[in-house]
Amino acid sequence: MGSSVSLFIALEGLDGSGTTTQSARLAAWLRNLGHTVHTSCEPSEGPVGQLIRASLRQKPGSPDRSTLPWLFSADRADHLYRDIEPALAAGTIAITDRYAPSSLAYQSMEIPMDQVYVLNATFRVPDLVLFHELDVDVALSRIGSRGEAREIFEHRSQLARVAKHYREAMAYLDARGWPITTLDASLPIEDVTLAIQAAVTALLPTSSEA
Ligand code: TMP
After folding, report:
1. How far from the centroid of its chain's Cα atoms is residue 78's Cα?
2. Which of 11, 14, 15, 76 to mutate to test the pocket of ligand 1 (most atoms within 8 A of CB)?
3. What pTM was computed for the model?
4. How sure is the predictor about 173, in pLDDT bands with cuts at 50, 70 and 90?
5. What is the mean pLDDT of the chain?
């Protein structure tokens, strides 16, 4: 049964890889087990996150995209302070749809990965990163079927570069001890959900510990 469990889980993957769907499914499953769960995302809902969304949509007057490495790390500091740290302190499972690995993957297209890492080096390392690995063409067809206006990273040439940088980012963080589980996000939604549940179960206290 549920207990006070403080866990920090980040879901990562290309646009279209299903992180938003899987975050919601993971939260519902954990709540059903009796745990208290907090869900959030990056870019966050906070003021810096809103600035980032405006920049990604290239809204007139929004910050130039060259500012994104700093904006994403400022947003992360705010997100940790406002959302994640209080949730963890209250014995909650905090699930975020994207976190620092996204910055290593996306912003390393603009500045060296080492620099992106330094911008994020003081932030809390999650207890688990769930990396949704997905072929670029599958990701694109999923993005296309959403029927929304595309953001700057959601075009084929960009997405193919992001996919390469994502793999490099995961290897980079893995080498620095980040706990990463890679999932095959081309599988049916239910199969990905089951793989996530197996990875998270390994972190939950057993009933004798609870
Ligand atoms: P979303 O599609 O998950 O809402 O994220 C919006 C975009 O922001 C997505 O293309 C990935 C990008 N992004 C970065 O470039 N760096 C980051 O650190 C994060 C969190 C997201």
Report:
1. 16
2. 15
3. 0.93
4. very high
5. 93
